[in-house]
Design goal:
This protein is an alpha+beta fold and 339 residues long. It has 2 domains: 2-84; 102-336, BirA Bifunctional Protein, domain 2. It contains 11 helices and 9 strands. The strands form 2 sheets. Strands 1-4-5-9-8-7-6 form a 7-stranded mixed sheet. It has a two-stranded antiparallel sheet with strand order 2-3. A hairpin with a 4-residue loop joins strand 6 and strand 7 (253-262). Helix 2 runs antiparallel to helix 4 (50-84) and helix 3 packs antiparallel against helix 4 (50-84). It starts with a helix and ends with a helix. It binds phenylalanine. Phenylalanine binds next to strand 8 and strand 9.
């Protein structure tokens, strides 16, 4: 009985103190192994008298069970600890890192080019716009046929001053908003989201983006404009491209221009991208209309400027050879993950 008590005290302490699986296994062999200390006692039961057996037997069996479960418990604990320890030899897990959307990449590139030419980047402007900023102030009065160029999402709810609200059809309203609160001279670009209520196809989306540009000063003129955009396209497409200005009509500019660049794919020979014309239409532009300067709070006899609007989707499609504008917002990761 004394021997059993000794084994119990020693074994319990040693099992508790075992610091790794190897020493725990050694303890199991030491006490419960084939010639372990407790095993030997259990074996010696055979040589004992009946009385002795009755006393020692159950005690020894109980101790065997106790030690056995203590060792199992401890084993579990030690294995868990082993798993959580840093094992530098295990192969690493590849971490998935996100990346910019192709449109964000192009927008950032465009913005960076203008920033390097001392343009300020003006953020935002409301996407829910008033009829005044989207149309009236831009020299597009009510019932003017030019409004039909913009298929508009009108909102049912009226604004705070009971004015009609819409989803802005272009970023040009920011021309007025900026002029109202700033004094010339300045040169800004304003990236933003715009909306048109029209049928979608490979080159039309109801939701797309624009970057508006406005430069106003006492003698800002079309040569300045031409220089800026030639520089812009050369940097964007990383080669000198011929730029062509064609007369066009936008109510908020006079003269109004459509800007073409020499086809970035065929260089002007004619291909499927430029529909054999050799030219790509890339932006609407012009000299800011006197009525627009007035609406911005400026005297058109004192100040003049140019404005243009460019579509990052169109630029991205040309740059990356993307055949369908709907891919940008389609959410197909096989497309997005190529960038
Ligand atoms: N706002 C015009 C559009 O959406 C583009 C434009 C901007 C044209 C500035 C001239 C000047 O089509």
């Amino acid at each position: 009985m004394d021997k059993l008590e000794q084994i119990k005290i020693a074994a319990e302490r040693e099992i508790k103190d075992a610091s790794n699986l190897k020493s725990l296994e050694d303890l199991r062999i030491k006490y419960l192994g084939r010639s372990g200390e407790l095993t030997m006692i259990l074996r010696s039961l055979a040589d004992m008298s009946l009385e002795e057996k009755k006393i020692v037997g159950p005690k020894a069996q109980a101790l065997r069970m106790e030690l056995d479960s203590m060792i199992t418990e401890k084993n579990k604990k030690l294995s868990e600890r082993k798993r959580s320890v840093l094992d530098v030899s295990r192969p690493g897990k590849k971490i998935k890192i996100g990346h910019l959307h192709p449109l964000s990449i192009v927008e950032k590139e465009i913005v960076d080019i203008f920033r390097s030419m001392s343009f300020s980047v003006i953020d935002g402007g409301p996407e829910v716009e008033t009829e005044y900023y989207n149309f009236d102030a831009l020299n597009i009065p009510k019932n003017h046929p030019a409004r039909e160029m913009h298929d508009t999402f009108w909102l049912e709810k009226l604004g705070n001053k009971n004015e009609r609200l819409l989803l802005r059809t272009h970023t040009s309203p920011m021309q007025i908003r900026y002029m109202e609160t700033h004094k010339p001279p300045f040169q800004i670009i304003v990236p933003g989201r715009v909306f048109r209520y029209e049928a979608t196809d490979a080159s039309h989306e109801i939701n797309f983006s624009q970057i508006e540009c406005l430069m106003v000063g006492k003698d800002v003129n079309l040569s300045n404009f031409k220089f800026i955009i030639e520089e812009f396209f050369a940097r964007l497409f990383k080669k000198k491209l011929t730029v062509r200005l064609r007369p066009s009509y936008f109510p908020f500019v006079e003269p109004g221009l459509e800007v073409d660049i020499q086809c970035v794919k065929c260089g002007g020979k004619g291909c499927n991208i430029c529909k054999d014309s050799g030219w790509l239409e890339v932006m609407g532009a012009g000299m800011v209309h006197p009525n627009v300067l007035k609406a911005g709070g400026y005297d058109p006899r004192e100040y003049q400027g140019f404005a243009f609007g460019v579509g990052p989707e169109r630029i991205a499609m040309l740059k990356y050879n993307i055949p369908d504008i709907r891919m940008f917002y389609g959410g197909d990761l096989r497309f997005i993950n190529q960038f």
